[in-house]
Amino acid sequence: MAEAEQELRFDTKLIHGGTTLGPSGATKAPIVQASAFAYQTAEELEDIFKGRAVGQVYTRIGNPTLEGLEKRLAVIENGIAAVITSSGMSAITTAVMAVVRSGDEILSSSSLFGGTYSLFHDTLANYGIKTRFFDPTDLQALETGINEATRLIFGETIGNPKMDVPDIAAFSAIARRHGIPLMVDATVSTPYLARMRELGADIIIHSTSKYINGTANSIGGAIIDAGSFDWRSDKFPHFEQFHRKYRNFAFTARVRKLIHKDFGACAAPLNAFLSGEGLETLALRMERHCSNALELARFLQAHPKVAWVNYPGLPDSPFHEVASRQFGGRFGGLLTFGLADKTAAFRAINALRLAKNLANIGDTKTLVIHPASTICADYTPEVKALMGVSEELVRVSVGIEDPADIIEDFRVALEGV
Ligand SMILES: *Cc1c(COP(=O)(O)O)cnc(C)c1O
Fold it and tell me: What pLDDT, on a 0 to 100 scale, did the predictor assign at position 128?
């Protein structure tokens, strides 16, 4: 990518980085809603299949609209390349399967998005890939958890609903020392709070369904290759052929030419277009998500019926210090709070008028959910404890409405609790 683009400031990059004009000078790249791409001669198509020429073939493999968003995300994260997928879960599955093989182990933070926990704990275990979990606040546990079979270290930037914030730079230092790549799911922090490549992540994951899309109109995922990991290692013989041909791009090549092509979880062009629209306003929205969340956290903390509030932006959060340092004084749009019990939590949710009760985060609208009875209902009591999911807990994804209206909604709802 152009060097000048890397020099743009973050908010400008969201709008201009990696973008191109469409046909006739259109200010939007076109939505290429086509499954396949035609060529005049058999020779041309042969050249493309053999890698002697560059060209589109079939949308599962690549499409100009998808490539447009991939280029923009790579520029924004300061990565060398990106691959977008049909969902955040397919981004994680594709990226992880590109790294590990049967018999390999993943060492993962225990504070995980529910779908990722299920993927690691249940699904991948059935295919001979074992995951060991470590407490992300315990760096010693990370270091001692590494063994001969470990091929990947996995973590999230802000745990949900635990609201824990691990020290990603410290994770990276340990991963580097052991020659193991660090993959970070940065969905909740978004590129706005921090660029994970600068903190040492080798592979960055986003569910674009959340803050990047921003208005909850399409599911999508992204895998960004920081280009920082050296895959020439005894641990990764399956990268040898890709490194020989694609050098620094070995990981992206293995994703694109093998795993993503074979698993087939490609993004839809219209969804990629819509998520790209969201990306332009990410900084403005995140600024408001963060300031509204802090205001709501302070209001709830002072409320007599609220037992506790968990938000890394509050000085009494055990993660306030690391979050301040890592995220430059901004703390994201998610918070959790506790009432007396499950009945009180249900009463509060039922009494909210503005805040919508649903299973999502990162919309412009304020959203609430009772995780213990919904998204985490299948967890055993031990896993619930590990993930910080208690019966009295309500999760809030704070929207970008006028903060006075959000607070008024909670004030009235809590009156009846
Ligand atoms: C939502 C989410 C995912 C999964 O993304 P989908 O787009 O729903 O598949 C993964 N990780 C985190 C942290 C999420 O919030």
Answer: 98
The DSSP symbol for 371 reads: G
The answer, as to whether pTM is greater than 0.85, is yes
Atom of ligand 1 nearest to the CA of 208: 7
Q: What is the pLDDT of residue 6?
A: 65
| 375 CA from centroid of ligand 1 (Å) | 12
pLDDT of residue 360: 97
Q: Is the CB of 363 under 6 A from ligand 1?
A: no
Q: At what angle do helices 64-76 and 269-280 cross, to 10 degrees?
A: 30
113 C-beta closer than 6 A to ligand 1: yes
The DSSP element (H or E) to which 85 belongs, if any, is: strand 81-85
Residue 58's DSSP bridge partners are 36
Does any ligand 1 atom lie closer than 6 A to the CB of residue 265? no
Say which residues have a Cβ less than 8 Å from residue 195's Cβ, sequence separation at least 6.
10, 76, 77, 78
Q: Which two tokens stand for residue 137?
A: 């606040």
> Any idea which residue has 């890939």 for tokens?
129
- Atom of ligand 1 minimally distant from the CA of 89: 9
Question: What confidence score (pLDDT) does residue 3 get?
Answer: 61
Quote the pLDDT of residue 97: 98
SS3 content of the chain, % helix, strand, coil (to 5): 45, 15, 40
Residue 103 — φ and ψ, nearest 5°? 95, -15
- Domains in the chain: ranges and CATH: 3-279 (3.40.640.10), 283-415 (3.90.1150.10)
State in Å: Cα 24 to ligand 1 middle. 37
Dihedral, CA atoms, 321, 162, 302, 358, nearest 10 degrees? 140
Secondary structure element (H or E) that encloses residue 155, with its range? strand 150-156
**First-to-last CA distance in the chain?**
55
* Measured CA angle at 226 (ends 98, 240), to 5 deg: 45
Which residues of the chain are under the pLDDT cut of 50? 1
Is-contact 366 397, C-beta < 8 A?
yes
pLDDT > 70 fraction of the chain, expressed in percent and rounded: 99
